[in-house]
Amino acid sequence: MINKRNIIFFSVLFIIIGCFIWLSIIFNSKSDQKNKSQHSVPKTTQVVSSDKPESLSGQDNTDKTSDSYETSTSLQKQLDVEQALSVFVSQKLNAVDVDSREKYLKNALTSTAFSGLQIELDSINVKKMIATYEEKNEFTSSSKSILANKEVTNVSIFRDVSNANYYYVEVKYTQTSPVMPNEKLSMVEKLNVSVDDDKISDIIVLSIETLKTDKE
After folding, report:
1. CB contact at 8 A, 169 and 191
2. Other CB atoms closer than 10 Å to residue 180's CB: what's the count?
3. Please, what are the averages of pLDDT over each run of 10 residues along the chain (216 residues)?
4. Predicted local distance difference test score (pLDDT) of residue 143
5. Among 71, 85, 72, CA closest to 157
6. Three-state SS across the chain?
7. What is the rounded CA–CA span in Å between residue 89 and residue 154?
8. This prediction's pTM
9. Which of 23, 43, 115, 161 is 20 to 30 Å from the Cα of 60, by its Cα?
């Protein structure tokens, strides 16, 4: 009976010890895995990135070149408009200059604007008036207001902020006439101008004002 109890006691004891050893092994194994896992994570540092990555530097240069080109093109268009309006307003009382003005405006204006503003017809009429004046030293009722030398002194041009193809222009010039040779008028002509590509598509004369009159 004693031997049987001893056997049972030692059996239970061995089972308890075995369980304890087994639990200890499992615990140590998990602990090692945790430690290994912790050691496998590298240290990190915060990287502050730029809003504009370096890979866009080439694009940035392209944008600057594009902006420069657009500015240059816009400036050239403005200069072309200034030159065209200067020629449009100016006038010299000789047939050669009248023909030169017509030829220039034919290239500077669209065909629709050139015909609509009657540049060619005006040139023909002015040349006839000049011929009559030179031959007979006479003025007609209409030629008194048309026969005048107009010399442009300043052109001020303002581009429409909502449309780059529209301009408001003020052209200042001096005017002398054979009708009143002792008077020199300072004038300003105000215009609205439309541009289509590289040519003027319309000119609207808003007003013509006399700024002052100088008498000799």
Report:
1. yes
2. 14
3. 60 67 61 46 32 40 50 74 95 95 96 96 93 84 81 94 93 92 94 93 97 88
4. 74
5. 85
6. CHHHHHHHHHHHHHHHHHHHHHHHHHHHHHHHHHHHHHHCCCCCCCCCCCCCCHHHHHHHHHHHHHHHHHHHHHHHHHHHHHHHHHHHHCECCCHHHHHHHHHHHHHHECHHHHHHCCHHHHHHHHHHHHHHHHHHCCCCCCHHHHCCEEEEEEEEEEECCCCCCEEEEEEEEEEEECCEEEEEEEEEEEEEEEEECCEEEEEEEEEEEEEEEEEC
7. 11
8. 0.65
9. 161
Q: Kindly report the backbone phi and psi dihedral angles of residue 72, in degrees, each rounded to the nearest multiple of 5, phi listed first.
A: -65, -45
Kindly list the structural domains of the chain, giving each domain's residue range(s) and its CATH number in brackets, ordered by start.
70-215 (3.10.450)
Instruction: Count Cβ atoms within 10 A of the Cβ of residue 35 and give its class: 0-12 exposed, 13-18 middle, 19 or more buried.
Output: exposed
Query: How far is it, in rounded angstroms, from Cα 199 to Cα 158?
Result: 17
Q: Are 169 and 197 in contact (CB under 8 A)?
A: no
pLDDT at 120: 96
Report the pLDDT value the prediction gives residue 207, as an integer from 0 to 100.
Answer: 97
Q: Which of 165, 157, 163, 162 is nearest to 196 (CA)?
A: 165
Scanning the structure block, which residue is given the tokens 């080439």? 58
> What is the phi/psi pair of residue 169, to 5°?
-130, 140
Distance CA 149, CA 153 (A): 13
Token pair listed for 90 = 């100016």
Distance CA 91, CA 97 (A): 8
Contact predicate 187/152, CB 8 Å: no
Q: What is the model's pLDDT at position 202?
A: 97
